[in-house]
Amino acid sequence: MNTTSTLDRPDARLHYEVRGEGPLIALIGSPMDADAFAPFADELAADHTVLTADPRGIKRSTVADPTRESSPAVRAADLAALIEHVGRGPATVLGSSGGAVTVLALAQDRPDLVEVVIAHEPPLLRLLPDHEAQLQTAEDLIALALGGDRLGAWRMFFAQANIVMPEEVLVQWFGGDADPQSLADERFWFEREYLGSVGWQPDLDALRRADVSFVLGIGEESVGQLCERTTTALGAQLDVEPTRFPGDHTGFVDHPAEFAARLRAVLETR
């Protein structure tokens, strides 16, 4: 059974969904919403209670002040409130991309609420030797996006990520019209969420002290990509060998059953 509800926060209303029975696992993206995780969540719901949510300011999760930054700390506090509200913690939490930054911030700020943290390809640019140039590129592509060059911004985004994206696919995805909700979500992400995520500096000492089991995920098809570099750099800092998962940066979307099987195998060792 899939139940859908909302949780009111002091400055936001969060859309969330719960499915299945068993130990609690939360699946979190940034900017990916709950729908992106649905097939993967359905796979896990056979033996877990699965929590998914739209991040604040995205799709069905609204904010009172759209000019406030959606920082990793703010999103981690939202996730903490959801886990406490569902009432089945401490939880296993899996975050992908910016959501991986969210779950790391949660482990840093509220380790009491989590047992296992799976951070799948967190784009932590400050951990890289060339972080100044990488952060400048992030600022440049944000400026393009907010200045109206949507196609140029996404072209730069994929180039920085070292993800091969044929020009005809870029034009098909980002060169034409998009529905108003998608455009609003994209703008909020670029304007209020993106730089704070890729520029987040984890408190490595706090993460090392946390009584939490860390899994750092990298896609089997992500070899040579930017997030392989950032995840490997974080692993070196935390003395955690990264774990390969099916697919690439969005493997849980493209291969939900295989990704769930790998996740179950990893959790059995924790």
SS summary, helix count: 11
Helix content estimate? 40-55%
End-to-end CA span: 27 Å
Strand content: 15-25%
Total strand segments:
9
| Secondary-structure element string | EEEHEEHEHEHHHHHEHEHH
**Overall 3D shape:** globular
Q: Would you give an account of this structure?
A:
With 270 residues, the protein is of the alpha/beta class. 46% of the residues lie in helices and 19% in strands. The mean pLDDT is 97.
Question: Topology, pairings included?
Answer:
Layout lengths: L1 E8 L2 E8 L4 E5 L9 H7 L4 E5 L8 E2 L8 H15 L4 E6 L1 H12 L4 E7 L10 H16 L3 H12 L5 H8 L5 H19 L5 H6 L3 E7 L6 H13 L4 E3 L5 H4 L1 H13 L2
Parallel strand pairs: 3-4, 3-6, 6-7, 7-8, 8-9
Antiparallel strand pairs: 1-2, 2-4, 2-5
Short description:
Helices cover 46% and strands 19% of the residues. It has 270 residues and is an alpha/beta fold.
Index terms:
270 residues, alpha/beta, 9-stranded mixed beta sheet, 11 helices, 9 strands, globular
